[in-house]
Amino acid sequence: MLFDDRRDAGRRLAKRLEYLRDEDVVVVGLPRGGVPVAYEVARVLNVPLDVIVVRKLGVPYQPELAFGAIGEDGVQVINDVVLGYTRLTREEIAEVERRERAELRRRTERLRRAHPRIPLLGRTVVVIDDGIATGATARAACQVAWEQGAQRVVLAVPVAPGDMLAILQEVADEVVCLEMPTWFGAVGGWYRSFGQVADAEVDLLLRSAENRSELPRMPADDPPLCDEDIQVPLGERELSGHLTIPENPLGLVMFAHGSGSSRRSPRNRFVAEVLNRAGLGTVVFDLLTPEEEIDRSRVFDIELLSRRLLDATRWLTGRPDVAGLRIGYFGASTGAAAALQAAADTSVAIAAVVSRGGRPDLAGAALAAVRAPTLLIVGGHDHLVLELNRLAAQEMSCETALTVVPGATHLFAEPGALEKVAELARDWLVAQLAPASAVDGRTETRS
Prior knowledge:
- With 447 residues, the chain is α/β, with parallel strands linked by helices.
- Helices cover 36% and strands 24% of the residues.
């Protein structure tokens, strides 16, 4: 199930929580992303809306990965598993906690000046966020609710990893979740629109709930110039895809996915949306027809995949809304090899390549002919693929960077890992596709 946006998720979640109508309920959202979801639940149930302020304690070199969280009333939650494999020092932990406690105080003071705390003593408290990754902030929020005297705590979210719910039942009487995928990735991957929520929007939602007034129409982002399903003609065949072009695009990124993935993959959709918000157009499409995907040998037919990618590139650049845009490739797994082999072809002008957990080694002799600046992103725990990427980087003569995401495995399914991939890809592609000079060199970094 994909949610249109947070308010759509809230309306769906409210239907599951209808059974609480006869209880003395207070709905609390986690700022900022959980508040639009919580607003819809509170509106449908006709109950008060408040917030519980929590702050994630993020790993310094990977802030999206939480090793814990803190909340109002001095609540603290620590994830010993994350601390174990990140091996943070006491000094690093203390510095993150000091910074986040200061921000927690600032946000709480600002919020409570305009919105006094709603008493939770003896009531059923429904704690809501827009999704759960590590669960640290949700655990902290539930503990805050208990500290404030809640009689019963219900944790409700649109989406969370299936294996996380049993852990969360330790801090809540009940956990309600609409989607519990085996492969989770990132919260944003389960939303069609997952933009940032500003403090002003949180204030507006709380004021509307307090006054029982109609919510004013939220200012919308500029709609994309193009957002449509496409069929890419290839002789007697057609490849299905989706083309998104924002207003004033900086360039266009074509996705070449590997085995076990498709244009509907939450991983691909999440990365594409991050690129769209940065001003890049995206084309997420299937290099094989549904019938061809049944034959697993075709997934490793790099010649076929790269030829399809080249044909699709030529077709797309002939469209009036694409003509003139600089083109980049984003490849995953075997799709990365196809992207690199296509980028080596002199018949197309490719300005940048990003490989996510890719197999560049499968591009063979084409590696030396790639001219486009290339970023290779590999998980730190994807040991074999990391070594293959290091060897492939040595074969390349273009600007090449190898970035390792610590703690991540091949699919970057660990909390925060896919967000890091999207950020790295975004920064690389914006720098290369927007008019800018490239600096030759080869580097390896640990992000």
